[in-house]
Design brief:
With 691 residues, the protein is of the alpha+beta class. It has five domains: 127 residues, PAS domain (Beta-Lactamase, 2-Layer Sandwich); 178 residues, Beta-Lactamase (2-Layer Sandwich), CATH 3.30.450.40; 102 residues, Beta-Lactamase (2-Layer Sandwich), CATH 3.30.450; 69 residues, Helix Hairpins, CATH 1.10.287; 154 residues, 2-Layer Sandwich (Heat Shock Protein 90). The protein contains 21 helices and 24 strands. The strands form five sheets. It has a six-stranded antiparallel beta sheet. The longest helix has 55 residues.
């Protein structure tokens, strides 16, 4: 609404400033709009301004602005207008502030002010004021929105304490509020002002008046009058007279200046909200301004919690940055050390006597040392990027390779013997140990293999086996003659002589068993007999062996029974050798099971280590084997205490034969035993996977 000027008011006509106001002066604008001349008197007011203030347009014209609007103190608004007039250009920066509108009804309404000016060739510019009513719901909405935006900004962008301070100042400043953060010192006895958003001009004025520096100012925490409420009860407090609070933390001789300093700083009304980190109060956030009300306590408490969390995160971030810098230094040092260690390790690997090979998780060769090159005849350039399958000779059972791969894929160490092929086609034996290489999470990233050429040892072993076989053969002829003459003597012997001949017959039979077992072991270990593999139904084999031993079991008063798993998959095996292994286990079980005992033959299909196995278990209810003997029972010529005490015939080679038969088939034999309850020997045979 445009109001005509009267000569006695000595106010410049509105027409002279219409060019500056035509964009903003809209009668129906939702915001109140004022124009103030150089003497700070109102020269224009729109309809919303009249409604908000309670004055008529005529009453507003010519009124001193200080009678209508206050920024806490009347001189503050005059100071802001003076600043705009002194520094105005054609496009000056506007001033945003919060203040109070003094209505005709003597109410003090909180408003948000935007002050701007335009000179446009005049000696003194006009000041334009845009007022937003912050009273009631509108004020609360703006207040909460500013806090919400500040919270989001803190959560997204605050990485340092300075960033937290900057965001708090920016968003609370939009409401015309000042803020300060006061924190406990390291000892926790004093409070220190770490930050304040008060304008530099006001802050310098207060500092000169007091002779003190605001940032870093320290005072005893017990001197803070709200200490109990903020620090012990952990609740926010509304301060109606900031001068009293300021006086309590100043030296005695400066306390009379506190009210004046509070007016300068604009802290007459304030809220102090505790900053809580990990259930400990570390200080408080102070927010001051003329528009603050007690109902703002809850919102300010929540905002203070966000500020406290941000300060903690910022401190952690700075600590992380310091640690990162230190870590970078340590990494540089460690890198240099690792480089030296790598060079030493490469030198060691290059000159190691054993062949060393490194692959990735898929088995692709990444590294071989010089000993491996000499052992295989391949150069590193020829094998890098290939797999160790190039060494396979075809004479190592595929089941052994599958077992090896399953073991190392689980992150376990595998050790065994392989017969490999060199580049020139010659065969050689290696004792190979493969260990997985894992990352920090335990994931297998590769494998390292160490192999030793044991061909010479195998040749020596073969010579020994041939020697044993030769000796055994040489002993057969005299043993046959001995048995013949023993039989002849038995015909005409006296009763006394027959007793001696029975001892001779028993020892001759024992010697015969020993020779046969020696020959069998020698043949198995040197692979003299080729395996005649055929698909076997082990249930059928078990039933046949049970029938063969049933008479012997009944003779000793022992129950022999079978527990056969249905639908066993066939295994590729040499029938004669599997029957021989099962015969030896059955014979032992019947020998060491007392009358009235039980021997059970049990078959099963077992999934183990990613492989499918068929098992045959021979269970007895005999005297059992002591635990300290179990690791040795498969060694040659080993006989346990129970066997010696029972004076059972045998040379300690039967279980060795069983072990060698299973080894040649890519399987194994295991034992479980408990003294007084019996033993269980289990034959494990792999099921061949379809090609």
């Amino acid at each position: 609404m445009q109001v005509p000027m009267t000569p006695d008011q000595e106010i410049e006509p509105l027409e002279e400033v219409r060019g500056d106001l035509y964009r903003a002066l809209v009668e129906e604008a939702g915001e109140a709009i004022l124009a103030v001349n150089a003497e700070l008197r109102i020269c224009f007011a729109n309809r919303r301004m009249a409604e908000l203030s309670g004055y008529s347009p005529e009453e507003l014209m010519g009124m001193e602005i200080s009678r209508l609007i206050s920024l806490g103190e009347t001189e503050t608004l005059a100071e802001a207008c003076s600043l705009l007039q002194d520094e105005a250009t054609n496009c000056p920066e506007p001033i945003i502030a919060a203040g109070l509108l003094l209505t005709r009804q003597q109410q003090r309404l909180p408003v948000e002010l935007l002050l701007s000016c335009s000179r446009r060739g005049r000696e003194k510019p006009y000041i334009f004021l845009y007022l937003r009513d912050l009273s009631g719901a509108r004020r609360q909405e703006a207040f909460l929105q500013a806090l919400s935006q500040a919270t989001l900004a803190i959560q997204r962008m605050a990485r340092t304490p300075e960033a937290v301070y900057r965001i708090v100042e920016e968003h609370l400043g939009k409401l015309g509020l000042n803020s300060a953060i006061i924190l406990l010192d390291e000892e926790g006895d004093s409070l220190v002002i770490r930050y304040t958003s008060t304008s530099r001009k006001r802050l310098r004025t207060a500092e000169r008046l007091l002779g003190l520096q605001a940032i870093g100012y320290t005072f005893p925490k017990r001197a803070f009058p709200l200490y109990q409420a903020v620090f012990e009860e952990r609740r926010a407090c509304f301060v109606a007279d900031g001068g009293q609070v300021l006086a309590s933390i100043l030296p005695t001789y400066l306390r009379p200046l506190a009210p004046h300093v509070a007016r300068i700083l604009g802290t007459r009304q304030a809220i102090a909200a505790p900053l809580v980190v990990q259930d400990q109060v570390i200080g408080f956030l102070e927010v001051s301004g003329p528009t603050l009300q007690e109902r703002d306590l809850a919102a300010m408490t929540l905002f203070a919690d966000q500020v406290a969390a941000a300060l903690e995160n910022a401190q952690l971030y700075e600590e992380i940055q310091r640690h990162n810098r230190r870590l970078e230094e340590l990494i540089a040092q460690r890198t240099a050390q690792l480089r030296q260690e790598k060079e030493r390790l490469e030198a060691i690997l290059a000159h190691a006597a054993d062949g060393i090979i490194l692959t990735d998780a898929e088995g692709t060769i990444l590294y071989v040392n010089q000993a491996w090159e000499r052992m295989t005849g391949y150069s590193a350039e020829e094998v890098l990027g290939r797999t160790p399958r190039l060494q396979q000779s075809g004479e190592t059972p595929l089941a052994l390779y599958r077992q090896m791969w399953a073991t190392i894929s689980r992150g376990q160490v595998w050790q065994g013997e392989l017969r490999n092929r060199r580049k020139d086609g010659s065969l050689y034996y290696v004792d190979l140990t493969i260990a997985p290489v894992t990352d920090a999470l335990g994931k297998v990233t590769g494998f390292v293999g160490v192999q030793r050429d044991i061909t010479h040892l195998k040749e020596v072993e073969a010579l020994k086996q041939r020697f044993i076989a030769q000796v055994s053969h040489e002993l057969r002829s005299p043993l046959t003659n001995l048995k013949l003459y023993q039989t002849l003597l038995q015909r005409e012997a006296t009763e006394n002589q027959k007793r001696y001949l029975e001892v001779l017959e028993r020892e001759t039979r024992r010697l015969e068993y020993l020779i046969e077992d020696l020959l069998t072991v020698a043949q198995l270990e040197r692979g003299a007999d080729r395996l005649r593999r055929e698909p076997l139904d082990l249930n059928e084999v078990v039933m046949q062996m049970a029938d063969q031993h049933r008479y012997a079991a009944e003779k000793e008063g022992i129950t022999l029974e079978e527990a056969l798993a249905p639908s066993l998959p066939p295994v590729g095996a040499d029938r004669d050798q599997i029957e021989q292994a099962l015969h030896r286990l059955l014979t032992n079980a019947l020998q060491y099971t007392p009358q009235g005992g039980r021997v059970t033959l049990r078959t099963a299909t077992v999934e183990r280590e990613g492989e499918t196995w068929v098992t045959i278990a021979v269970e007895d209810t005999g005297r059992g084997i002591p635990s300290h003997e179990l690791p040795y029972i498969f060694e040659r010529f080993y006989r346990g205490e129970s066997a010696r005490a029972a004076q059972k015939p045998g040379a300690g080679l039967g279980l060795t034969v069983v072990r060698e038969i299973l080894r040649r088939h890519g399987g194994e034999v295991t034992v479980e035993s408990e003294v007084g309850k019996g033993s269980t020997f289990t034959l494990w045979l792999p099921v061949e996977k379809p090609q």
